[in-house]
């Protein structure tokens, strides 16, 4: 990337619709895997501020470091260099995770990871149970969350009795149970069929707008990225670097029909062309 291209990447936080979530600051983040002699540089030079309540989408070719970056933001991996701050608080103090900061984070993976021996309600409320919240309060919160994510009435069911999309809704509810300021989602809809995925995108937009969380989402879908994002961060092939940071200026709430507008398609085309240069 040229110096001018680099300068064109606006790394400060974008203005956003909500302001209740927490901001995220990444400074000089780099990740190497393996021992020092034969290590693989997976990610380098990530400098970015994600605004409170912003919806940021990570996009990029396979193996460019999207999951690595997500795991670093989630505190599941301590980057080999650089710093991560959540609302000005460091995520790590030396080799110790900052538990107070971790409480602000909710995480959703591609697999809903429901415990099969717990009902949907108990799965959703598990993080609350681990924090000592009373059973009455847990039931109340699980019921509110089921309503929020559109699975009201399924509280007493087992995970196997729900469709893949419904289980993913339950996983989002569980991630939101402790009222996190930040929701981190790694390809949450990757395993769903196209129609369910489109429906989930609409639902996620609504949940995000209602909750005011900051969201960081990883996807392989350019369409999903443009539909959901305030900004799309396109990472280059390994070692992943910030290649393009694109603000999507399509009004909210966005509808499925917006995807056929010239404005939407222009964003898609721009990102697709850039991704094609990596092939
Ligand atoms: N635990 C690990 N040990 C060694 N190398 C790893 C490890 N995890 C990831 N990598 C390497 O780091 C690079 C980035 O991996 P990562 O999973 O973050 O990419 P990704 O963009 O999420 O990929 P995909 O889109 O295929 O899911 C890859 O080259 C991968 O092989």
TrEMBL record:
Residues 24-262 form the ABC transporter domain. GO terms for biological process: quaternary ammonium group transport. One of its GO terms (molecular function) is ATP binding. Keywords: ATP-binding, Nucleotide-binding, Transport. PROSITE patterns: ABC_TRANSPORTER_1 (PS00211), ABC_TRANSPORTER_2 (PS50893). It holds the Pfam family ABC_tran. InterPro entries: AAA+_ATPase, ABC_transporter-like_ATP-bd, ABC_transporter-like_CS, ABC_transporter_ATP-bind, P-loop_NTPase. SUPFAM superfamilies: P-loop containing nucleoside triphosphate hydrolases. SMART domains: AAA. Gene3D superfamilies: P-loop containing nucleotide triphosphate hydrolases. It comes from the Bacteria. Belongs to the ABC transporter superfamily. This is NitT/TauT family transport system ATP-binding protein. It comes from Neorhizobium alkalisoli.
């Amino acid at each position: 990337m040229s110096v001018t291209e680099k300068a064109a990447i606006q790394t400060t936080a974008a203005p956003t619709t909500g302001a209740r979530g927490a901001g995220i600051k990444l400074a000089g983040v780099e990740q190497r895997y393996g021992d020092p002699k034969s290590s693989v540089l997976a990610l380098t030079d990530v400098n970015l501020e994600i605004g409170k309540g912003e919806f940021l989408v990570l996009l990029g070719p396979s193996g460019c470091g999207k999951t690595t970056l997500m795991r670093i933001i989630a505190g599941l991996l301590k980057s080999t260099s650089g710093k991560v701050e959540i609302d000005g608080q460091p995520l790590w103090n030396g080799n110790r995770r900052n538990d107070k900061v971790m409480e602000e984070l909710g995480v959703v993976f591609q697999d809903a990871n429901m415990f099969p021996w717990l009902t949907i309600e108990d799965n959703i409320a598990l993080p609350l149970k681990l924090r000592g919240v009373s059973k009455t309060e847990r039931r109340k919160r699980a019921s509110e969350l089921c309503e929020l994510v559109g699975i009201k009435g399924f509280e007493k069911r087992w995970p196997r009795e729900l469709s893949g999309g419904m289980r993913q809704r339950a996983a989002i509810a569980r991630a939101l149970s402790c009222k996190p300021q930040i929701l981190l989602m790694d390809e949450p809809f990757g395993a769903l069929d196209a129609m369910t995925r489109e429906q989930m995108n609409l639902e996620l937009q609504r949940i995000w707008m209602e909750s005011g969380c900051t969201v960081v989402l990883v996807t392989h879908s350019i369409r999903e990225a443009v539909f959901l994002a305030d900004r799309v961060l396109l990472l280059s092939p390994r070692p992943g670097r910030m290649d393009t940071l694109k603000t999507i200026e399509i009004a909210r709430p966005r509808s499925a029909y917006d995807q056929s507008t010239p404005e939407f398609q222009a964003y898609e085309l721009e990102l697709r062309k850039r991704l094609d240069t990596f092939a």
